[in-house]
């Protein structure tokens, strides 16, 4: 709103558009909002909560049970520091990597795959080995991944011209210049995949801490991917659509808003080497919820869900946390020698006392894309035209990312299934968030169905129920100048005895980055905890 309380016209239009979608057509099946718990977050921001009625001492406190927090706990266990506690606001751990399940199939609520890591990423390889994802190791030390966890063919298809086609690039009807530009782009990705700096580091690594910080690599962060394409004569609409899709898929941004460094990272970091395919994909019916469940089991009773941290402050002996126990409404207190804040930075600014005053400009540099994830339970499959159903199904003339099929990995190609439909809100951040949060579950269901009708005209008659996840701050936006900014470096630094771990600290919303920051924060805590240091 404006200072006088009047709503800005742009926000009013966004809310009105959302309301019109809600009123236009109400589906005749149950539609439910299942994540995240926004009511508790709003309650904490209102303040006025009582003081804790009891205090508990714990050596190390982890705030946030997403991938970063769970990974920090996993690493602390490996380092022999098993006396820690994870506090998570939601009723289940995992954040945007959570999964869910119903009578038909487990299914993701967000992130749904992981590129199979090479041997160089030893920590992640070890984690995957614990889950049974690795069957053996080759003579060269490369892991051999379990066949049933590698994405089953067909992997992806695209709907265009009234039918489905294999792959993500729309080859049908491409002219000679389209194909020449596609080849030129692939050659540039090959060049970047083969490039090494003076220290032998690749231009892009997964996680990014394995990659190069050479000036010629960092310079890519200064322009958009669209500008980089223009400079390389890449003007083919088919190629640029594919690149725009990649930016929306991983970053919730459009081609002309995404850092060229981040856009090229999407392709080159996943490539095994020059002229090779991208690394194989690991996926599960419940997406990355499979990995969340493994890490949560490892944490056991030390993971407390339904515990919302209202404030975290530093003291002469460590930290104190005031925590709302959601189920009972009681306020609890926790004292720890060190803490890892493993939530997004906008929450850190609200929860960690003194952080906003110390690092306000750094926190304000972070921007995030809202996301809508809709799980549709179908009684049976719709009729198809063209290439058969794949794991990943993309509609070319759509602002959505399409859908993945939860039952695909199980080889179930007929009968009931669950489709997980993804829609990133790529416009102005605050207006898009308001637009998303103004939509109730039926409105969200209608948005998904109206999109899917482009390829599946009979979809409404096949839907048994819809479950909705509205992620208001789903993915950090790697806009030009951000991925190598001082603000990002500053945000990674400890604040007294409080350390930070979150995928945002890489400028990229990826599992590998959240995992890497969780391990880094745990190593920082281990070094200082064992030395008895009270300082950073």
Report what the structure shows.
- With 536 residues, the chain is of the alpha/beta class.
- It folds into 3 domains: 18-35 and 368-476, Protoporphyrinogen oxidase, mitochondrial, domain 2 (Polyamine Oxidase, Chain A, domain 2, Alpha-Beta Complex), CATH 3.90.660; 49-98 and 287-366 and 480-531, FAD/NAD(P)-binding domain (3-Layer(bba) Sandwich), CATH 3.50.50.60; 181-279, Orthogonal Bundle (Guanine Nucleotide Dissociation Inhibitor, domain 1), CATH 1.10.405.
- 34% of the residues lie in helices and 22% in strands.
- The chain has 17 helices and 23 strands.
- The strands form 6 sheets. The protein has an 8-stranded mixed beta sheet with strand order 1-22-18-21-20-19-10-11, sandwiched between helices. A 5-stranded parallel beta sheet has the order 13-4-3-17-23, with helices on one face. It has a 4-stranded mixed beta sheet with strand order 2-16-15-14.
- The model is unreliable at 1-24 (pLDDT under 50).
The CATH architecture classification of the largest domain is: 3-Layer(bba) Sandwich
Major sheet: order of its strands?
1-22-18-21-20-19-10-11
Cα shape: globular
Number of helices: 17
Helix content: 25-40%
Largest sheet: 8 strands, mixed
Radius of gyration: 23 Å
Give the rounded overall mean pLDDT: 92
What is the fold named in CATH at topology level of the largest domain? FAD/NAD(P)-binding domain
């Amino acid at each position: 709103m404006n200072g006088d309380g009047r709503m800005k016209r742009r926000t009013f239009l966004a809310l009105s558009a959302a309301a019109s979608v809600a009123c236009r057509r109400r589906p005749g099946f149950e539609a439910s909002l299942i994540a995240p718990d926004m009511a508790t977050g709003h309650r904490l921001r209102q303040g006025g909560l009582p003081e804790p009625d009891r205090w508990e001492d714990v050596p190390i406190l982890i705030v946030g049970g997403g991938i970063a927090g769970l990974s920090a706990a996993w690493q602390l266990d490996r380092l022999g520091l098993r006396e820690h506690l994870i506090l998570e606001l939601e009723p289940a751990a995992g954040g945007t990597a959570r999964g869910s399940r119903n009578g038909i199939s487990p299914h993701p609520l967000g992130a749904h795959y992981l590129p199979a890591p090479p041997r160089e990423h030893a920590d992640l390889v070890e984690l995957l080995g614990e889950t049974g994802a690795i069957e053996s190791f080759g003579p060269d030390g490369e892991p051999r991944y379990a066949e049933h966890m590698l994405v089953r063919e067909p992997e992806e298809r695209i709907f265009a011209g009234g039918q489905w086609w294999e792959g993500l690039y729309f080859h049908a009807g491409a002219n000679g210049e389209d194909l020449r530009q596609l080849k030129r782009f692939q050659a540039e990705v090959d060049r970047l995949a083969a490039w090494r700096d003076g220290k032998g580091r690749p231009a892009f690594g997964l996680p990014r801490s394995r990659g190069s910080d050479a000036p010629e690599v960092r310079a890519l962060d200064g322009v958009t991917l669209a500008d980089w394409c223009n400079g390389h004569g890449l003007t083919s609409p088919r190629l640029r659509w594919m690149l725009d899709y990649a930016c929306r898929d991983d970053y919730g941004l459009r081609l002309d808003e995404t850092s060229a460094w981040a856009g090229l990272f999407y392709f080159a970091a996943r490539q095994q080497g020059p002229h090779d395919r991208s690394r194989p994909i690991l996926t599960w019916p419940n997406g990355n919820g499979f990995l969340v469940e493994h890490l949560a089991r490892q944490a056991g009773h030390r993971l407390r869900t339904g515990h919302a941290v209202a404030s975290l402050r530093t003291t002469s002996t460590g930290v104190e946390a005031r925590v709302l126990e959601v189920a009972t409404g009681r306020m609890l207190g926790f004292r720890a020698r060190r803490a890892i804040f493993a939530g997004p930075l906008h929450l850190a600014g609200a929860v960690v006392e003194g952080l906003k005053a110390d690092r306000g400009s750094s926190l304000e540099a972070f921007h995030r894309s809202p996301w809508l994830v809709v799980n549709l339970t179908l009684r049976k499959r719709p009729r198809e035209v063209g290439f058969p159903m794949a794991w990943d199904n993309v509609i070319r003339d759509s602002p959505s990312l399409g859908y993945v099929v939860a039952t695909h990995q199980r080889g179930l190609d007929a009968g009931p299934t669950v489709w997980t439909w993804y829609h990133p809100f790529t416009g102005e951040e605050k207006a898009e968030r308001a637009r998303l949060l103004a939509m109730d579950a039926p409105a969200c269901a209608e948005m998904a169905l109206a999109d899917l009708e482009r390829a599946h005209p009979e979809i409404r008659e096949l839907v048994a129920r819809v479950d909705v996840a509205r992620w208001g701050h789903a993915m950090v936006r790697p806009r030009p100048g951000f991925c190598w900014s001082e603000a990002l470096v500053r945000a990674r630094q400890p604040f007294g005895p409080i350390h930070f771990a979150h995928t945002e600290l890489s400028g990229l919303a990826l599992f590998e980055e959240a995992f890497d920051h969780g391990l880094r924060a745990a190593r920082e805590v281990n070094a200082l905890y064992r030395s008895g240091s009270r300082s950073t």
